[in-house]
Amino acid sequence: MANFETIIYQKLDGVGYVTLNRPQVLNAYNLQMRDELYQVLGAINDDPEVRVAIFKGAGERAFCAGADLSEFLTAPSPVVARQARWERDVWGLFLSITKPLIAAVHGYVLGDGIEIALCCDIRLASEDAQFGLPELGLGIIPAAGGSQTLPRTVGSTRALEILLTGRWLKAEEARRLKMVNQVVPRNDLLPAAERLANKIKTYSPIAVSYAKRAITEGLDLSLEQGLELEVKLGRRISLTG
Ligand code: COA
């Protein structure tokens, strides 16, 4: 796989590790990171050796401090800068991946940082994590799926409050609101994510991907349609098993 500048991608024993790697700017998400993330997500999807992936941030201070504001400042306006980001549907690809994705977040988790984590299936946060959506202060709205993934995760009441006020949440509150599954000490963040990944990869990859699909696709269906989806996927497993 190509050498990337803004992301480190590694594969080890069935686990793909994606590290956002611009620690000097708190792993801010720029256009190059968008393109590299797009390639990495394709690789995770297509590579049968990767059973589960972990997303993390380089450096001590942040998972990701949101969109790269220097790109915003050189564009005519944040709205125009945002348009460039829609040229590639990274978020559609992210949400379509049928393998389990684990976010292991620390420090600042802002804007795109929250949204990347929300594209993952399981979220672990270290005790120092702080979450916020500063978009409205820039005159824009979330564009990495956050306006849809956040309310589906914490409910519309909480999502509206977090977005409309720009209030930041500490890790423990994020756990209470079910934005993250677990809060762990900083030095246990990656090991805790690896324990989950190592457990998941012991299961049949087909069963794992169908379980993920049944839940994530089912959320957008009526109960009746969701039950049909479950039957359809279950039957396929019995045919292949
Ligand atoms: N885009 C580009 N650069 C960023 C950045 C971003 N979103 N967030 C931080 N950086 C850079 C800073 O410019 C600084 O660079 P410098 O050392 O060359 O001056 C470096 O990262 C460290 O950040 P700094 O602001 O000095 O750290 P801090 O601890 O004082 O503050 C934050 C941390 C996260 C509170 C602050 O950096 C911030 O508010 N960032 C912007 C968050 C944001 O609005 N994101 C966009 C969401 S849509």
Would you summarize the structure shown here?
By secondary structure, the protein is α/β, with parallel strands linked by helices.
Topology:
Elements: E1 7-12, E2 15-20, H1 31-46, E3 52-57, E4 62-64, H2 69-74, H3 78-85, H4 90-96, E5 101-105, E6 108-110, H5 112-118, E7 122-126, E8 130-132, H6 146-154, H7 156-165, E9 169-170, H8 171-176, E10 182-184, H9 189-200, H10 205-218, H11 223-240
Parallel strand pairs: 2-3, 3-5, 4-6, 5-7, 6-8, 7-10
Antiparallel strand pairs: 1-2, 8-9
Helix pairs in contact: 5-6, 6-7, 10-11
The protein binds coenzyme A.
Residues 25-26, 28, 65-70, 108, 110-111, 134-135, 138 line the site of coenzyme A.
